[in-house]
Amino acid sequence: MFFKAIVAAVVVACVFGYRANMQMKAEVPSFKKFVAGALAGVFATGSFQMPAQALTKAETLSLSYEQVKGSGFANRCPDVIGEEVIAVQGGKKYKFTDLCIEPKNFQVEEEVSDKKGSNIKTFVNVKLMTRQTYTLDGISGVVENVNGKAVFTEKDGIDYAATTVQTPGGERVPFLFTVKDLVATGNGDKIKPGFEFGGSFTVPSYRTGLFLDPKGRGTTTGYDQAGALPGIQNGVEGDAFMFNENNKRFDVLSGDIEFAVNKVNEAEGEFGGVFVSDQPGDTDMGGKAPKRILIKGSFYGHLEPL
Which CATH number fits domain 208-247: 3.40.50, 3.90.550, 3.10.450, 3.30.2050? Predict the structure, then answer.
């Protein structure tokens, strides 16, 4: 029930809080504002209820391969029991291990018509086309106390997952769900229910340099342009029209993510909660403008002194 509340709050805020253009970096401040409000609403109504068949980290590790196979647990993040406090002390470094980020809802920004006939941009629910391989897991990094705030710097792990969703109109939208190079700053130095942290991350190209499009064009291999391409025969204007399709590039964009903690187990150094992520989709190697993807779900993390 509470997760549905955050989804509803985020969607409403998106409609009225976002500007109409598609420039990702310029919209980071507004993203942080509406996410902060949405996450605050979750804790105003209480903690999340643990889902059916919820498993802690210890219970997950006790399962055999046969028990996990085909059950969907491999795509699930562990749950945390407790509402305690983990202090990130100054002058010490901590190892952030086993960060798991599990999406539960995907939305894509689309242009729709309102009752007055005006076109507005809003996030619409989409259908997930990828099988249960989209959860990020085993992410590790370092946590430090910087000026009284806990700062997490991502270093390694399974920090990306190729994912595809389908809009109500039938369009397939591929994107690389990721938190690469994430630097997340907290709102304090004590990890407890209500603690929030977030920041920006890098979104590499969905396609690699060796990928070839249907006409054999690529970045490091393949043709420079498609054979017998009609557009290339129309002089300078024709070449300009097909420039992005003929000149493939490895786009590196950026996204933002915010986490909110609602469960903490001090004895085990574990904590978990919810997250909201805003990132661009695939650019088809520079051939099209990326769509904005809004992702909501739950996460799990483990902290221990270095």
Answer: 3.30.2050
Q: Which helix (H) or strand (E) holds 262?
A: strand 253-265
Amino acid at 298: S
Rounded to a whole number of angstroms, the distance between the first and last alpha carbons of the chain is 38
**Checking phi first, is residue 267 left (phi over 0); if not, alpha (psi -120 to 50) or beta?**
alpha
pTM of this prediction exceeds 0.85: no
Question: At what angle are helices 28-45 and 2-17 packed, to 10 degrees?
Answer: 150
Half-sphere exposure of 14 (CA within 13 A, CB side): 24
What tens digit of pLDDT does each residue of 270-291 get? 999 999 999 999 998 888 889 9
Domain 2-45+86-207+250-305 sits in CATH 3.30.830.10: no
Residue length, the chain? 306
Residues ≥6 apart with Cβ < 8 Å to 209: 218, 219, 220, 221, 250
Tell me the β-bridge partners of 151: 144, 185
Which three-class secondary structure state does DSSP give residue 38? helix
